Amino acid sequence: MRKITLLSCLLLAGCAIVLTVLASGTAADPLVTVSYVRQLYNTAVEQDAGTRADALVSQKTDALQSAIESAVADRIAQGLAASVAQSVGQSAGTAAGRSWTEVTLSQGDVVSGPVGAGIMLTAGSAATTGTSELIDVTNGRTLSIGVVASPNTYYMVPTDQSAGLRVTSTTATVRVRDGAAVTRAQTALYEDEADRLNAIGLFRGSNYGYELTRRPTRQESLIMLIRLLGEEQAALAYTGQSTFTDLTGWPDGIRYVAYGQHMGYTNGMTATEFSQQTPADATMYCTYVLRALGYDDAAGDFSYREAVQKAIEVGLLTSAQYEQLQTTGLLRDHMVLISYNALWAACNGSDQTLGERLVERGVLTQAQLDSARK
């Protein structure tokens, strides 16, 4: 009896399964067709294959790109090394026979030159400029445009006027050779006055001309004063010693400073420090020239802080000229203007001008003084 009952249950369950399958669809009339299944499967496979392919291509592309970049970098480095080596090799044979010339520059000035021109920054700051890289001979590499230059490093221009250094500090000292030249950032306003002073021996330039658009150093401004007073030969013949312990370089330059201190024209930054390469300012140079005119700041004729105002008062420059000067700081251009105007300014307590006094002392002839007047 139990066997019959169990068999009946199994038959009923089987019928239920059959009915369910038939309700869900048959091979002749399926609810989910084979083509639909294939479509779903193929789409999934294609998507998966595409994803895998993209990933594989991406990996291969990245690897290939990396390999290309590495190879190109190696070739560039090899070419660069060869280029630098060739440049250095070409210059090595004659380097011993060439010398550097030192020049003081102002902010914005540019040093460049022909192929092989040498540039070395020794003081201040500068950055590379131009249309190509600058060769760093010292370290065997190149510097791209806008890179800060390292001091005491030998740089070489690779092609005519293609690269150089632009001064970024207020002043800078640069050594040049092999045709390197300076392009000044400013336009000189008082070149005519410079020509007139130069013609009567009261102003000189350098190997680069008057250099009117750069800042003068303290040493240069003192030398200008001594020449303006007609005392250059006395300064060069002076054998006394200065108390300034920081004087270096050009022997005649040291004599000028020692003489200027002896004559009371300069007191230095301190009793032992002159700071010869520090840029001069308008207050300092106006003080120098006022002293040349016989004004004594120690005696109360003027105060150092008010030297510019006193200079305007006695006719060394106008208020408008001083306003222009303030936009750049004192340049050699302004130093020429003040010196030139001093020739026609009356000396303290006298109707005699400085120019007339120089004629009286035999420093100038009357004809020279007259030729200098506009």
Give a verbal description of the structure:
This protein is an alpha+beta fold and 374 residues long. The protein folds into 3 domains: 2-92; 101-183, Jelly Rolls, CATH 2.60.120; 191-372, no CATH class. Helix content is 47%, strand content 11%. The protein has 12 helices and 10 strands. The strands form 2 sheets. Strands 1-9-3-7-5-6 form a 6-stranded antiparallel β-sheet, covered by helices on one side. A 4-stranded antiparallel β-sheet has the order 4-8-2-10, with no helix packed on it. The longest helix is centred in the first third of the chain and has 62 residues, at 34-95. It is elongated, with a radius of gyration of 42 Å. The chain starts with a helix and ends with a helix. The relative contact order is 0.08. Residues 1-45, 71-82 and 87-97 have low confidence and may be disordered.
Task: Considering the chains and any ligands shown, give keywords for the structure.
374 residues, 3 domains, single chain, alpha+beta, Jelly Rolls, 10 strands
